[in-house]
Fold:
Amino acid sequence: MSQTTLPPDPLAELRAAGRLPRPPYAFPALPRPWRVWVLSNERSAGYADFGATLAGAPGLQVRLRPVALTDPRSIYQGLAQVGQDLDATAVVLVRGGGDGLAVFDDPLVLYGLAECPHYTILGVGHASDTVLAGQAVDHEAITPTAAAQFLLAQRQACPLAAPPPSRAPRLPRLLSWKGRR
Structure:
């Protein structure tokens, strides 16, 4: 994502460009382990809830991209960085509820989410919280835990590919052949 000059009404411009609300996009069904980037603060209660829900889930490589959850520029830069990861399957932005959710209404955050090339999930706040960023993502969950549950459901719906057949049975035959020389 390049440096963006924000227009006077970014929501109107994003809507006019067809970027808000984000067009429907099916979750990528990839039969390999999924790399999932989480943008959050490692000390955030929302991140802790998200991580606890995904603990031990097979087929998920969860990576944290720390961001300052009160700074729109930090979130935008985090989205730009993980957007460059060609192996990423999804990007999840999580934060618990409480005061300070206005950052998720900031035009810079909306642009970052709208420009992200990967499947995006928002898990911010509590069930009663609403933020404009929900219009700029592929899936909006009502809490960080619900975002993790959605991700688990998608992973379970798409089984991992079977591993290649083992070559171990050939090894004893090769060793016995080598001894016959």
Notes: The first helix runs from residue 10 to 16. The CA atoms of residues 113 and 172 lie 54 Å apart.
